[in-house]
Amino acid sequence: TYTVLAQCGKELDFGQMLRFLQVGKPLHFACALVCMCLFVVLEGVSLRRINQKLGWDTGFTPNLIYSAADVYYSAITPSAAGGQPASGYYMVRDGIPLSAATSSLMLNIVCYTASLDIIGVAAMATNFPLFLRLAWPVQLLILLGIGIQFVLLVFFLLCMFKSDLVLGMSRGVIRFLGKLHLVRDPAAKEEKIHHTVEQYAQCVSLMAGSRRLFLEVLALNLGQRVVQMLITCFVCTAVPTGLNFGQVLARQAFCLTGSNSIPLPGSVGAFEYLYIGIFGLDIYPDALLPSMMTARGISYYLCFVICGVMTWLYHIRTGKR
Question: For residue 163, which phi and psi values (nearest 5 degrees)?
Fold first, then answer.
């Protein structure tokens, strides 16, 4: 991305970006880097907490790698779909049964989805005048982000608590589409959905013994999203940009919500579009692109490179083991 921008993007001056880093407050950039690390650590703590409950605690470092693998493989696979399977792969490789690994990841994704919805609704409730100032395509992406995450959360909860209803509806839809010749091999599709719903239903037994666990995992996922937003807050307050800490946090919450409406690894393209559309209203013009690329460089590119190194070192070590 940086290479393409350097070759054909006249709007972004890399000398300007370097000056942005040079004149910025080192402590703020250091805090942004700490938040990047916390983003990975908090998911590792969340997964470890669930695995402890299941009786398969492999220690802090392996769970940190499960989190790093999630970040890394999400960044290099279509629709960011490879993160959880990669985490599950390393869990099973470390001796955790597949059923336990699946339950752990399923509960974590439910709390991840819920945390995104909480942030989106909170941003809308507390900053509605800002939302009304945005261009309609940006507003549409934000609303889609909230709506998609809400639909996913409802689907997950129905799978957990009303699995028979979901299975019945899914079978009816698949058979109807099969009669219209829009779905090939309806029986295989039914079996796949049945297996998926069963996996989410396993979370019920996991939560039944401890509702506190659900609240802990939700709090950790919410914390993970907050520290991710704080990266941009520290970057944008490292130099005079015309925005204070709270104003940046509100705008970044909208960016995070809207970018989740686009199924791309790291929401590449969508995030940048939203950042320019949201921050461009009030931030100093000469700080817009340098702050965006610096914040994005820390929160996404640097993060997934570090996670990739961590994952492959662990992969090689456990392979020798």
Answer: -65, -35
